[in-house]
Amino acid sequence: MPNTNTRNLHELSADIAAVVRDVVATGEDAVITDDGTEVAVIMSMADYDRLHLYAELADAARPGYAGATEFRAMSISEMLDVLGVHPTVDRGLRG
Fold this sequence. Notes:
The structure is a single chain. By secondary structure, the protein is α+β, with helices and mostly antiparallel strands. 42% of the residues lie in helices and 18% in strands. The chain is built from four helices and three strands; from the N terminus they run βααββαα. A three-stranded mixed beta sheet has the order 1-2-3. Helix 3 (45-61) crosses helix 4. The longest helix is centred in the middle third of the chain and has 17 residues, at 45-61. The N and C termini lie close together (7 Å).
């Protein structure tokens, strides 16, 4: 799991530009909290694109997915298992 910065939602508006620049420069996600509860994350576009690519690959790897009219949502951990991706090895993914 990458190092993660945690920011409070109420304080974020004052330094959003700095937070985004820090995420881009360091590759560390910024977790946003609201009253102590994690509610969102700011991540680099590279990590976002990689996450969506893994999700698409996981969908395509599911038996019976091709041409299916319905789908079942899967958790991140299920998706990583289908892909054989291990979060401790693959930078940018949270387990």
